[in-house]
Write a structure and sequence with these properties.
Number of strands of chain B: 0
Shape of chain B: globular
Largest sheet of chain A: 6 strands, parallel
CATH topology of chain B: ABC transporter involved in vitamin B12 uptake, BtuC
Helix content of chain B: 55-70%
Shape of chain A: globular
CATH architecture of chain B: Orthogonal Bundle
Number of domains of chain B: 1
Strand content of chain B: under 5%
Strand order of the largest sheet of chain A: 2-1-3-4-5-11
Number of strands of chain A: 14
Number of domains of chain A: 2
Structural class of chain B: mainly alpha
Oligomer: heterodimer
Distance between the termini of chain A: 25 Å
Order of helices and strands of chain A: HEHEHEHEEHEHEHEHEEHEEHEEH
């Protein structure tokens, strides 16, 4: 599989290279922007939304920008090669859109100080590397609330991708808010060790459903778990990263939608204006980076009202998804009454909160 | 840890779904190897079947037509292998590997516009009141028609190989192609037909993944099942019913790993992922100490002049 992905990436890159050589000669003032994707643009989730952001950039700036992308790039050394090629190819700015691209981005950025890099969901920055992410955990809080209210078996399944802070934060946030409305609720967590593998994701969803889960949350990028839930008939799901509305109104009852377009447009503008600096952006519902997809009629009206109220309080900052009193899984205090978690703690979160069973794989 | 949360009925029923792609791919490959041809292109033929079946099912709305198209797709791709090894007398190992890589690439190309599309569903076979028998019903009688076809196919292959003249010819060609040739059997024709049969079976196995088990299309989605099928044929020492047993064992290991995770037992995924191959290696070592059960001409190139 790796081989074909590589081959495909190479092929795409070759085409991109050829195209740029053809146009580059007489269009020097065009800003060239590269995107490195972890999945295919048609995944219907994470990468799909990033590509929508790319298309929005194209639409906004018209002929004054040129974008190229390489999809299905494996996290790790291979991505470094893809980024290097893009930089050599004359890209002024490169967006690398997966956590696993973090070290490769830093490495390549050191070699090309004039190219601006933007890395999604990571925490390492440099003079020409910015990071950006969205506060998905705010959306998870709303999912947890709806899940806790709607589950009848009191078992909520959760498909994790990799045990990294971003995913663990989501699990904790969903769990805290599910427990808040339903003290009997339990989480079953299966790690798929992939961002995008419909076969594995479908298997994981089926197993969770077989073990009694009647709500399945996913932190992987394909719609396969939605299909598995639809097959099972009475299982609630939420769209991840994208609306996944083709599974609405049921099993998909709501979703977290990543909206990268405004951020991408503003950052490209900064490069064009020469005002770009290395920043760390972490926006949530309030700033519009995290959207909550339509809550369908399958959710009882009162639950929907509560969920929307929760969304409003998260958006205006009057409520934080991690508000004490909270303990860590081992019972040690995490947050005191009324205290909220700071961003540094959230960014490096590597523990479950009290009540979640199981261990985080190392 | 909470093992009681694993529902044994659904767990065992899950075996059938996980094992079916393996059964098809492995039984087809077993017939191919019985005629003395080693086709390492199973993975490539499976993925071709997966996309041909998926595309046809989506376009026509009929999953069964999809499976038929998958069989055709797998068989057509296998013809390439037959041409290389039977006509051009190319090395079988190299040709098989090339077939896998080619199939993965070609299927990714064909599947470009099918990513994220929902295929039509194939319903379960209706057994009426029988399906309500406790335990027995949900485990054995709650599947789609392809699961039963797979078991029927294994039985048919076993019977043909053991009792029929066709089976005798197949085995003769595989055990000693020179002798078979001297007896007047068309070695190349027999092998080409067997290769096509293997391709068709692998194609159906692949389509089972894209149409029923997942059901979705994504490139490279067979994810090594073709290789497990190859290991399975050796594991089964070229016997039909051992293929069936092995498929349940290997398919069950995948189910087991996810179920254990759900129940809170953390076993590193890698152990169970490599276990089919470890088991196969152990069986191979064991077999080699007893006697050689592989078909005598396996992997050797046949030329009528030699």
């Amino acid at each position: 599989m790796t081989f074909t992905k590589r081959a495909a990436a190479k092929l795409l890159l070759g085409t991109a290279l050829a195209a740029s050589m053809a146009t580059g000669a007489f269009a020097q003032d065009k800003t060239k922007i590269g995107f490195v994707y972890v999945g295919p643009v048609g995944d219907g989730g994470w990468t799909y939304e990033h590509d929508k952001g790319r298309l929005a950039v194209e639409e906004h700036f018209g002929d004054s920008v040129e974008t190229v992308f390489v999809e299905s790039v494996a996290e790790g050394p291979d991505s470094e090669r893809v980024m290097t090629q893009m930089a050599l190819d004359g890209a002024d700015m490169i967006f690398t859109t997966s956590f696993g691209f973090m070290d490769p981005t830093i490495n390549v950025a050191a070699k090309f100080p004039d190219v601006k890099f933007e890395h999604a969901t990571g925490y390492k920055r440099a003079d020409n590397v910015s990071t950006y992410s969205a506060r998905f955990y705010e959306g998870r809080a709303i999912q947890g609330h709806i899940a806790g209210k709607m589950t009848e078996s009191n078992i909520i399944g959760y498909i994790g991708s990799y045990p990294i802070p971003e995913v663990i934060r989501g699990i904790n946030s969903a769990f805290i808010h599910a427990r808040k409305v339903n003290p009997d609720v339990e989480f079953k967590i299966v790690w798929a060790y992939t961002w995008f593998d419909p076969a594995k994701e479908a298997d994981a969803a089926s197993v969770l459903i077989e073990q009694g889960a009647d709500v399945v949350l996913q932190h992987t990028d394909s719609t396969a778990p939605q299909a598995a839930a639809q097959e099972a008939g009475n299982v609630v799901t939420f769209g991840q990263a994208s609306d996944m509305s083709q599974y609405a109104p049921f099993p998909r009852v709501s979703s977290i939608i990543d909206d990268w377009a405004p951020y991408y447009i503003s950052r490209v503008q900064a490069v064009k204006d020469g005002t770009w600096t290395s920043t760390d952006t972490w926006d949530g519902i309030g700033a519009g980076m995290v959207g909550i997809g339509e809550i369908t009629d399958a959710v009882p009206a009162d639950v929907r009202e509560e969920a929307l109220a929760l969304k409003a309080s998260l958006a205006d900052g009057s409520y934080h998804a991690f508000t004490g009193p909270l303990n860590k899984q081992d019972g040690t205090p995490f947050l005191a009454e009324g205290e909220t978690a700071d961003d540094a703690t959230l960014a490096s979160m590597n523990f479950y909160v009290e009540g979640i069973m199981g261990e985080i794989p190392q | 840890m909470d093992l009681s949360s694993i529902n044994p009925v659904l767990f065992i029923a899950g075996f059938f779904v996980a094992a079916t792609p393996l059964i098809f791919a492995a039984i087809g490959e077993m017939v191919v190897e019985k005629t003395g041809v080693l086709n390492l292109g199973v993975e490539g033929m499976m993925i071709m079947g997966a996309i041909c079946g998926f595309a046809t099912a989506v376009e026509t709305g009929s999953p069964l037509l999809g499976f038929a198209a998958a069989a055709v797709g797998g068989a057509v791709l296998s013809l390439l292998f037959a041409f290389l090894t039977q006509v051009m007398l190319a090395n079988q190992v190299a040709s098989g590997l090339a077939l896998t890589l080619f199939g993965l690439g070609l299927s990714a190309l064909l599947g470009q516009s099918y990513v994220g599309v929902k295929p039509p569903r194939l319903g379960d076979v209706n057994f009426g009141p029988l399906a309500d028998i406790p335990y027995f019903g949900p485990i054995f009688l709650s599947h789609d028609i392809i699961v039963y076809l797979g078991i029927a196919l294994v039985t048919a292959v076993w019977a043909v190989l053991k009792f029929s003249r066709v089976g005798l010819i197949l085995r003769a060609v595989g055990e000693n192609h020179d002798a078979a040739h001297a007896l007047g059997f068309k070695v190349k024709r027999v092998r080409t037909l067997a290769i096509m049969f293997g391709g068709a079976c692998a194609g159906v196995g692949g389509a089972y993944i894209s149409l029923i088990r997942v059901p979705q299309w994504t490139e490279g989605m067979t994810a090594g099942i073709g290789w497990i099928a190859l290991a399975l044929v050796v594991f089964a020492s070229w016997r039909a019913f051992r293929v069936l047993l092995g498929a349940y064992l290997f398919g069950g290991l995948v189910q087991l790993q996810l179920n254990l995770q759900g129940a809170g037992v953390a076993i590193p995924v890698e152990y169970l992922a490599m276990s089919p191959y470890v088991i196969t290696i152990v069986v191979l070592v064991f077999l080699s100490r007893v006697r050689s059960v592989a078909p005598g001409s396996l992997g050797r190139i046949f030329h009528a002049s030699s």
